[in-house]
Amino acid sequence: MSDTPFLQALAVSKIYPGKQLSGVKPTNMVVQPGKITAIIGESGSGKSTLLKLLYGLLSPDTGEVQFKGERIWGPEEKLIPGHDAMKMVTQHTDDLNLFAKVWDNVAAMLPATDLAAKQHKTEQVLKQLNMLHMAERRVADLSGGEKQRVAIARAIITRPQVLLLDEPFNQVDTSFREGLQSDIRQIVKETGLTVIMVSHDPAEVLSMADALIVLQNGEIIEHGHPKALYQSPRNLYTAQLLSNCNVLTTTEARLCGVDIKKEHAVIYPEWIKIKVVTPNKGWTVKQVLFKGFYEDLILEQRGVSLRIVNEEPGKYTEGDKVAVRVGKWLEY
Ligand code: ADP
Ligand code: MG
User: Fold this and answer.
1) Which GO-annotated molecular functions does the record name (predicted)?
2) Which residue minimizes the CA distance to atom 21 of ligand 1?
3) In a domain, 183, yes or no
4) Is the same domain home to 273 and 232?
């Protein structure tokens, strides 16, 4: 049947025993094939639990997960937990053989029945992940980010239909992370691999994901395209996850010339423009945070702080008096 969802959760829940209610409440979700779906939420919101339920590493209390219309078996029902068509990589992936070469670590995932195919596929995957030049190096001698690449290579060489990533880039430094992210995007585009990733890094989910799922206290509170969720989040929680935004009360908002009807105004740093004004008026530049080709400025007036993005580095110095103009805001 063509209208059978690729992967879906039907009223799936998993509540851990204990004083505090924790885990995942009854949840419905659909994962589109050949896309990157990102699950974002604060620490403890249930991201890893949901991922394990989707993979079959945990048995749900209620509901079921279906892959191509068939129920996914839990760990009690299967000799090797986890669905055979899926692979999962976490930041604790430590089943690497540290004393073997990168090449052998990756090739070891394939059967030795067809050596030519094994050779060809290993080379192909190492190429896709930009690792061919380190094929002969021992895993023990690699950086954390490089080891994560090996773990991902090992996961995708067996051609899983779904790759699950649980914050695998946490230990990877920023410059390295971007390369890895774009390589994964490229692989998804070329091979039709389906990726479900868990993250709490807004830059990562915004640049990588085709679909975004926001989890709060074990519940999906909204989902959609990353751009849409960023531009007009329905919840304050989502805005705060996706942007380093200013959250102001009604009175504080008025200081920026913003009149709101609801309790909170949310203003993203890039929605505020400033200009220098005659001294002793308006906002004071308290901090200039150099970010390379732009700066973050922290402004202050009457005890209220405001973070803004300044695209002309060097234009303002600490102590400058400025006026602000807010182009857009959200109300919650
Ligand atoms: P996240 O990945 O979003 O940080 P988790 O899914 O790991 O969240 O955990 C969600 C909640 O469930 C947390 O409050 C966590 O402490 C609790 N939890 C996770 N695993 C267990 C477990 N095995 N036993 C009891 N509580 C757990
Ligand atoms: Mg987690």
Assistant:
1) ATP binding; ATP hydrolysis activity
2) 16
3) yes
4) no
Buried b (16+ CB within 10 A) or exposed e, 87-123: bbbbbebeebeeeebbbebbbebbeeeeeeebeebbe
| Lowest-confidence pick of 121-135, 246-260, 274-288 | 274-288
What tokens appear for 325 in the block?
């103009």
Which residue matches tokens 């994964």?
184
Q: Which contiguous run of DSSP H or E holds residue 177?
A: helix 174-191
Question: Ligand 1 mean position to 94 CA, how many Å?
Answer: 21
Is residue 36 within 8 A of residue 195, CB to CB? The reply is: yes
C-alpha 196/C-alpha 223 separation (Å) is 14
Dump pLDDT digits (tens) for 125-166.
Answer: 999 999 999 999 999 999 888 999 999 999 999 999 999 999
Is residue 156 a part of any domain in this protein? Answer: yes
Asked whether residue 125 is domain-assigned, the answer is yes
Please report which confidence band the pLDDT of residue 20 belongs to, taking 50, 70 and 90 as the band edges: confident
Tally the domains of the chain.
2
Among 218, 241, 264, the domain boundary falls at 241
* Most ligand 1 atoms within 8 A of CB, residue of 12, 13, 15, 16 to mutate: 16
- Asked if 242 and 292 count as a contact pair (C-beta separation under 8 A), the reply is no
Residues 159 and 26 in one domain: yes
245 CA to centre of ligand 2 in angstroms: 24
φ, ψ dihedrals at 117, nearest 5°: -65, -40
Confirm whether 1 is domain-assigned: no
Could you tell me how many residues make up the chain?
332
CATH number for the domain that contains residue 62:
3.40.50.300
* The last residue of a domain, from among 215, 241, 267: 241
Identify the residue whose tokens are 């799922």. 213
Q: Indicate the range of 73-87, 108-122, 232-246, 279-293 predicted with least confidence.
A: 279-293
